[in-house]
Amino acid sequence: MPWFDQFPWLIALAPFAGLFLSAVVKRRDPAVIGDRVYRHDPPARVSHWTHALGVGFCLVSGIVMGARFTPAFVADGPDAILWMNVHFVAAVSFLFGTFFYLGNTVISRYRFKEHLPTRHAVDYTIRHYGRTIGIKKFTMPPEDKYFESEKVAYIMALACSILLVVSGLVKALAHVVLTLPDAFMNVLTWTHDIAAALMLLFFVAHVFFAVIAPFSWKTFPSMFTGWMPLGEAEKEHKGWLARLAAMGRVEGAPAPVAGPAGEEPSDTGSSQTVSAAVEQGGQ
């Protein structure tokens, strides 16, 4: 028997568990500490990975089972039940991560604002990707914690997540307790599948630009450890460093860097490098 039939209460519990956990966990703000920058605290990483893994396995299992506009790769029977159970577990993870993030956003609204595009979103996105592919005429002003291109993609992911959550929860309720008109369920299923297709586009692009592309390799580990190198932040996120410095979130200094033979070691402390970022960020 599919787990959607055996454990429907988990679908209802996951959002409440995410909201509850967001209310009791302690958050840690980003800061420059020595030669590293603390970028993502544990709650941010937990919400990211539970959401991301949930989305990933929901997409894979959904593709296997088929959508309104794609063929199914399994027929009714044990194989279909297996993939439906995968979809169930992934949905629980997705709901938990999404509502954990939602709760954190309600409590710390400035974290949500960090993700929102500014009026420069289109211009900066064109410049960012133009520079990425080697077009030298494009220059970038100091970027914040998240690139403007990431902020634009975030809006797409947010919209898709809302559609998936609402349509998915109603579909789950209809599967267990509600009796809804066939026409309504057809529209709901189309909505769910189209949102999933759009989320797939975002997911593939996100994995490429955040994980596979070489320019992401110094930042991506922060999703596991929380930390990124100060040098990378100075290169890509001068605006963010300026903001951290203005808020007094700079602690310590990295060890002196040895110079050529016969010269004194040079002190490249974070106070100097971040001060430079403040100056450039304010230009």
Present the secondary structure layout.
Blueprint: H1 3-6, H2 8-24, E1 31-33, E2 36-38, H3 42-65, H4 78-107, H5 109-113, H6 121-132, H7 148-176, H8 182-212, H9 222-225, E3 227-229, H10 230-236, H11 238-246, E4 250-251, H12 270-281
Parallel strand pairs: 1-4
Antiparallel strand pairs: 1-2, 2-3
Description:
The protein has two domains: 226 residues, Up-down Bundle (Fumarate Reductase Cytochrome B subunit); 44 residues, no CATH class. It starts with a helix and ends with a helix. Helix 3 runs antiparallel to helix 4, helix 7 runs antiparallel to helix 8 and helix 11 packs across helix 12. The longest helix is centred in the C-terminal third of the chain and has 31 residues. It has 283 residues and is mostly helical. It is built from twelve helices and four strands, in the order H-H-E-E-H-H-H-H-H-H-H-E-H-H-E-H. The protein has a four-stranded mixed beta sheet. About 6% of the residues have low confidence. It is 65% helix and 4% strand. One of its GO terms (cellular component) is plasma membrane. Keywords: Cell membrane, Membrane, Transmembrane, Transmembrane helix. It is found in: Cell membrane.
